[in-house]
Amino acid sequence: MQKSFFQSLTFRLSVLLILTAAVACFVVWQKWEAAIIVAIVWLTALQAVRKLFRRHAEKITLMFDAIDNTDYAFKFATGGHFSHDRMVNHSLNRITQIFLQAKADAIQKEKYYELIINSISTGILVIDDKGYVFQTNNETLRMLGLPVFSHVKQLGRVDKRLETLITHVRPGEKHQISFANERETVTLSIRVSGMTLRAKHVRIVVINDIRSELEEKEIESWIRLTRVLTHEIMNAITPITSLSQTLLAIHGNASEEIRNGLDTICSTGKGLISFVDSYRKFTHIPTPKPSLFYVRKFTERMVQLAIHQNPYPNITVTINVAPDDLILHADENLIGQVMLNLLKNAMQAIGHEQDNGHIEVKAHCNETESVIIEVSNNGPAIPPEKAEHIFVPFFTTKEGGSGIGLSVARQIMQLSGGSIILKNTPHGEKTTFALTFP
Question: Which residue has better confidence, 355 or 404?
Fold first, then answer.
């Protein structure tokens, strides 16, 4: 205990102060020999204090070196003989634990924020001015179709215009871009902000897939337009048709020329009314009432019905559903309308003249547990300039077609929470429409 006291910092500083006072007194009294002796003792005491401070400084340096190398298991012994050493060592160990806890909290927060970022339906991309990716989330990888994203140059494999846009876009700018991948056409909205991260200027790119929103607004616009047109046409045609029928009944003895004219007016009016009624289907789709049903049985029934309604002896239809007990949750009647329309279009695309006509219906569950039903045919491919318009109401590639079938199919799929797309094939070997049910 006494040894510990004599080795303590308090004792050494006290001795140093006393010796300093003694040297000052001897100098004042002009006792030079005593002053020199005490001064030598004072230097010895000062050296001891200096050594003690240096030892503590070395400990602090060693502690920070360990922290800098992420060695938080490093500890100083707290069972020494001297109380000041135990106190210093204990304090340094506490500092190490505080740093360790702070790092653990930072890692936990980082995982928490990463979980949140990966849970949202918006793409987040953080890149520096050289194009290196600091951080991204799963939605960005999904929208871009990339398994790994480390540099902006990788976007060149998706679309060169997209690479150029992301490379040169600056904070505060907003852009919109569309490109086609192997599955579908993607329309992205891109917004950018900037900040300094780890002493580097970075750009935070926010990416949203707005294709479904654009399609929804487009459908709403067409529905409003169709309702106005059908209302005005019906208001104009119905009285004309009714009046012509009345005149035919009243003036049955009129000349043949007048009767033929009235008959023509009446039949034309009825034809226009029937024509307008077909467009009303586009604006009066009932609300889906989903239920569970087996995809195989449903597909087989739709194929049999389509073959009965559209007999094509030169066309064979194959069905491939995996797994065999695949179940879909949707409105079976509404999805049946979509399937019948796709099967009818496929048969008409092949026609009666093409030998070995083939239609394949495939259904499976993808990695995100979405059910996908594909209807493919080996008929003539749809030209690219027409393919981008096939879902537009009133647009048709068939003579005498109404241009309503695919637009109604798209609206039904949107009401069902799914989507319908025309899949791109490398050389146009076949035409494939894919229905996706999340």
Answer: 355
pLDDT-based confidence at residue 408 (cuts at 50, 70, 90): confident
Q: In this predicted model, which residue has the larger pLDDT, 216 or 169? A: 169
On whether the CB atoms of residues 169 and 191 are closer than 8 A, the answer is no
Question: Of 279 and 196, which is predicted with more confidence?
Answer: 196
Q: Report the percentage of the chain scoring pLDDT > 90.
A: 13
pLDDT of amino acid 1:
41
